Amino acid sequence: MQFLIQDFFVPLQVKITIMMKRLTILVVLCLLVGLFCDAAPRRKKTRARKTARRTVKHVAKPLKLSVHDANPFKTCEDTCTHVHGIDVSHYQNDVFWNAVRDDTNMSYVYLKCTEGSDNQDPLYLRNLEMIRDRGLKVGSYHFFRPKVCLAQQMRNFRAQCLPSEQDLIPMLDVETTAGLSNEQFCDSLSKMLLLMEETYNQKPLVYTYRNFYNSHLKGRLDGYPLMIAMYSDEQPQLEDGRDYIIWQYTCKGRLAGIKGEVDKSRIVGDHSLTELYFVR
Question: Structure pTM?
């Protein structure tokens, strides 16, 4: 009987011990799970707070805007001491010249007057009158057609470009050889320049591109003032070392008073706008 009782209680004690161990393990696991669940939100909140702080810092940091970002109309002429100007034709449509005078630093305007033997810019006379009324210095230019009768081209230009209405010397726009050999082209150009000089009693300004000059005109325009076009951040260099008065630096300029793009230029070096004043 004694052995039976002992046999009964020994397995029972073993079972209780095993159950207690299991219960202990279960309690420990529950505590660990609870601690993990409690810590996870805190880590998320901490990350959220850090992210928020980073976001706030990013938003609060002032943006460094260039002059162009702040105002697309504000460019070199608003931040330098150069004398700037534009050339305008009917491609710019109706120009609000009050805005050009009051809201920009433009000092001179060259207007397209004529082209070839019989083409007149339809907005030339309107633009000329409005510019003169607003006190801007104005000059006029003719687009040269090398194969067209020179006398007819001169008559066309002279009929529109009256000396009494000009502040600046006339300009000849030279951009094409029209398929002529270089000798034929330069001969035609020289004769046209002489006609203009005889008509206005002063040498005209010659406008052309740097590459065109280097290919066709170097060494052939001595004595004539030049406007050279090259659209870059650096001033153009001519292969023959010729000096020039005006550099047209962009064909995509923006300007208050003008819808769309416009050609902009500036006086270079030690030159001054007075060198281009029309002498009567």
Answer: 0.73
Closest by CA to 170, choosing from 197, 208, 188, is 197
What is the total residue count of the chain?
280
- Give the HSE-up count for residue 40: Cα atoms under 13 Å, Cβ half-sphere: 6
CA atoms within 13 A on the CB side of 240: 16
Q: By three-state DSSP, how is residue 142 classified? A: strand
> 106-120 burial by CB neighbour count: b if 16+ within 10 A, else e?
bbbbbbbbbbbbebb
Q: Does 113 have pLDDT greater than 70?
A: yes
Q: What angle do CA 256, 259, 261 make, to 5 degrees?
A: 90
- Residue 42 CA to its chain's centroid (Å): 52
Rounded CA-CA distance 260/256 in Å is: 10
Q: Do 247 and 264 contact (CB within 8 A), yes or no?
A: no
